[in-house]
Write a structure and sequence with these properties.
- The complex is a heterodimer of chains A (424) and B (199).
- Chain A has one domain: Cytochrome-c3 Hydrogenase, chain B, CATH 1.10.645.
- Helix content of chain A is 47%, strand content 12%.
- Chain A is built from 18 helices and eight strands.
- In chain A, strand 4 and strand 5 form a beta hairpin.
- In chain A, helix 4 runs antiparallel to helix 5 and helix 5 runs antiparallel to helix 17.
- The longest helix of chain A is centred in the first third of the chain and has 29 residues.
- A five-stranded mixed sheet of chain B has the order 1-2-5-4-3. Chain B has a two-stranded parallel sheet with strand order 6-7.
- In chain B, strand 6, helix 3 and strand 7 form a beta-alpha-beta unit.
- Chain B contains three helices and seven strands.
- Chain B is globular, with a radius of gyration of 19 Å.
- By secondary structure, chain B is of the alpha/beta class.
- Chain B folds into two domains: 136 residues, Beta Polymerase, domain 2; 33 residues, no CATH class.
- Classes of the chains: A mainly alpha (424), B alpha/beta (199).
- At the A-B interface, helix 2, strand 6, strand 7, strand 8 and helix 15 of A face strand 3 and helix 3 of B.
Chain lengths: 424, 199
């Protein structure tokens, strides 16, 4: 009987060429086991679980990750280069597009950095400060709602995702009423905010918060003790307190590992000293603690917002300082001095005295800072953003080490890498 | 609070310091390049300093630095550090921002770096967060971090020519990764760039 294979010494079958191995029947006994070599797998840049676009080159031993090279940069839009060519006010739309799930906090951070350079810190009208805190906390809520909702969905809990995105939509609707735009608000100005809160804002926000509290009870019931959710989250991607500090982690990720650091408490800014709230701190530093910290922060946000609504004073929303405030429209159209000032303000930008400053706020993901070097003109000489997502992403390779490929999904979800902020 | 750090730094590492300043409440210490690693190690390990948390690394390109409306005075702005005798300023300043979790200190280290010798010691071994941030600074400004474990471009692709955040890199410059023959070739306009033109 003639063997069907016509392989002669020296020639190779198509299968051998493609697979680079012999046919099964040609293998010796110990060769028939699976190849022990490490394998390289590309995850991303366009992968449903990679929030935004990031590529990980995984080296896997079977299903277990032995090395991961995380490569950001697919969403790089030259924030710093563009900012150097824009006036200080024109940078606000760029900051909206950094962390696009909580743009208001970025707006506030940029405004505070410029105000620090101009010596305006502490001279912002109190109503404007309260409005900034209100919109910042609403933004923090949208950030956490998105993070938890999307992560839950990636683990199969679609209901939680829909519930939380509905909540986020209510907040977006309110922010749209406030600023005029649903996502890219550009609402904050240097020296205050763009305009006062809309009518019925107090009632709308109170109603919205009451609804969110109810939804959160349901979602916590769905997730907190859900066996699948806990199995996928608990003990995954854990980080020690020392590692969290040394790798520069901040915000919910550092706090879940036991680092008691919140810019709002440790370096208080705006009117946060007048508000009562707690900073939740975790113990294990794994994905489940990151989830719990974010859930608790949502509750603290609601607490802050309720206090703000009670305490917010009446008054102007823009500092009465001709360096930063536009002249009133009536004066602009009727007096030549105001018209010239308006023109110079728009065309040349706000004149910021030469110097440098680093101002930081507690963003959705932690310390979000802007480092500005000013040269006395209307445009920043250098504008650097200290984006927490970038720092957190740099720890990802270490966090996924030793875990399964499937664990990359919850780890990435809970790092909450926002492409726009990470890639600048 | 921040002056405490500067005083201690002056007392212990007086010889390593070019100058000290405070701007808008931020403490800034200019360190000589050769001493940067020693000073940084001390800042991290000394219990009275304990700068355990890294914040950011970046660089300032002072190529066309012409500050306006600076009040006249004897001091050359920004600081006396980095100026050579002929009145020219070192082109780059590498900036390290540090934070101490125990003492809540904040400190900015600066290191003047001339263009022809654009290198500084890497601090990535002391603070792992600086690994990526030094890569970013290298990617954007072309600063060589000596002793960095893995100095590669991070945002841009390996084939990219030049360093985009340098002041002589034109904002309009395009470098598509995939060559498009229907687009005009757009060479770097400034002769000072010197990093080659369009691929």
């Amino acid at each position: 009987m003639v063997a069907p294979s016509t392989t002669e010494p020296g020639s190779r079958s198509l299968k051998q060429l493609v697979l680079g191995r012999k046919d099964v029947q040609d293998l010796s006994d110990n060769e028939q086991e699976l190849p022990p070599d490490l394998m390289t797998v590309n995850m991303g840049p366009s992968h449903p679980a990679m929030h935004g676009t990031v590529r990980i080159v995984l080296t896997v031993d079977g299903e277990r990750i032995v090395a991961g090279d995380v490569q950001p940069g697919y969403l790089h839009r030259c924030f710093e280069k563009e900012s150097e060519h824009a006036t200080y006010t024109q940078v606000f739309p760029y900051t909206d597009r950094l962390n696009y799930v909580s743009p208001m906090i970025n707006n506030c951070g940029w405004a505070m950095a410029v105000e620090k350079l101009m010596g305006l810190t502490g001279h912002i009208p109190r109503r404007a400060e309260y409005i900034r805190v209100i919109v910042s906390e609403m933004s923090r809520m949208t950030d956490h709602l998105t993070c938890i909702g999307a992560s839950a969905m990636e683990l199969g809990a679609f209901t939680a995702f829909l519930y939380f995105l509905k909540c986020r939509e209510w907040l977006y609707e309110l922010l749209e009423k406030v600023s005029g735009a649903r996502l890219t608000h550009s609402y904050v100005r240097i020296g205050g905010v763009g305009k006062d809160l809309p009518e019925n804002f107090h009632a709308d926000l109170t109603l919205c918060l009451d609804q969110i509290v109810k939804i959160m009870v349901e979602v916590e019931g769905l997730l907190n003790n859900n066996k699948i959710f806990r199995d996928r989250m608990a003990g995954i991607g854990a980080m020690t307190k020392e590692d969290a500090i040394a790798t520069g982690c901040v915000g919910p990720i550092a706090r879940s590992a036991g680092v008691d650091y919140d810019v709002r408490k440790d370096y208080p800014y705006s009117v946060y000293p007048e508000l009562e709230f707690d900073v939740p701190v975790g113990t294990t530093g794994d994905c489940y603690d990151r989830y719990l910290v974010r859930i608790e922060e949502l509750k603290q946000c609601i607490r802050i917002l309720r206090q703000c609504l009670q305490q917010i004073p009446d008054g102007p929303v823009m500092a009465d300082d001709p360096r930063v405030a536009l002249p009133p429209k009536a004066a602009t159209y009727n007096t030549i001095e105001s018209m010239i000032r308006h023109f110079k303000h728009i065309m040349d930008g706000i004149k910021v005295p030469a110097g440098e400053a680093y101002a930081f706020v507690e963003g959705g993901n932690g310390e979000l800072g802007f480092y500005i070097v000013a040269d006395g003109t209307g445009r920043p000489y250098k504008a650097y953003v200290r984006s927490p997502s970038f720092v957190h992403l740099s720890t990802a390779a270490q966090l996924i080490h030793g875990h399964l490929i499937a664990d990359v999904v919850p780890i990435f979800g809970m790092i909450n890498m926002i492409g726009g902020e990470c890639d600048k | 609070m921040s002056s405490k750090v500067l005083d201690a730094l002056k007392a212990v590492h007086g010889g390593a310091i070019d100058s000290l300043e405070t701007q808008h409440g931020d403490a800034i210490a200019w360190i000589k390049r050769d001493h940067l690693l020693a000073v940084a190690t001390w800042l991290k390990n000394d219990p009275a300093m304990a700068f355990d948390a890294p914040v950011f690394v970046t660089c300032i390109d002072r190529l066309d630095w012409k500050p306006q409306d600076v009040p006249p005075g004897p001091q050359v702005y920004p600081a006396t550090a980095g100026w050579s005798d002929d009145g020219t300023k070192a082109r780059f300043e590498v900036v390290y921002q540090l934070r101490s979790t125990t003492h809540r200190y904040r400190l900015r280290l600066k290191c003047a770096v001339p263009e022809h010798d654009a290198r500084v010691p890497s601090l990535a071994m002391l603070w792992p967060a600086f690994n990526w941030q030094e890569r970013e600074t290298y990617d954007m400004y072309g600063i060589q971090f000596e002793g960095h474990p893995d100095l590669r471009r991070i945002y841009l692709y390996e084939e990219f020519v030049g360093y985009p955040l340098r002041k002589d890199y034109p904002k309009e410059q395009r470098q598509p990764l995939v060559r498009r023959d229907d687009l005009p070739i757009n060479p770097i306009k400034s002769p000072a760039a010197g990093h080659g033109g369009h691929r």
